[in-house]
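Board notes (copied after class):
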Amino acid sequence: VALDRLKRMRILATGKAAVPMLDALLSRLPVAPSCDVQGVLIAPESPRSLPATFQFFRGGHPVPNEASFAGSRAALSMLNEVKDASAEDTLCIFLISGGASAMMELPLDAGISLEDTVAFHRALVASGATIVEMNCVRKHFSAVKGGRLALAAGSAQQISLLVSDVPPMHLDALASGPTIA
């Protein structure tokens, strides 16, 4: 990725480690002043500082909350704005860590309420299913999981940096695979 040629960069950071991951990226990322950098942070705690072009949402964990829905809508909106952009000048960076399955949630069916979504997540956690099995089910429920965020970014170049809390060889289960189908 030729960072000096980028016109647009979109960054999504979500999960329990989203704040330190985003801080580390922003402190080391050489971006041309002409590059339009925007982002969404969905995390359990507020960052010490955040660029003015970023939105913060305090996502719920272990069950989603209204900010989980709002953050997911903001992420999809941000990505949809660049989905038809040139891959040569647009980069989407996804910083994903454990806990994002609840912190970043939005049902595929708009008729499903937050209360129903919370009940769904609680039932999954109490089911005795493994994390891989739970996140497989979540992928089919969610508008932002199962590779749907990567699809929303369209033809833009994409990089996913993952801090995993799932068994090795199951990275699609991390946060229910927002960038991995």
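Comment from the instructor: The chain has a mean pLDDT of 93. The chain has six helices and five strands.
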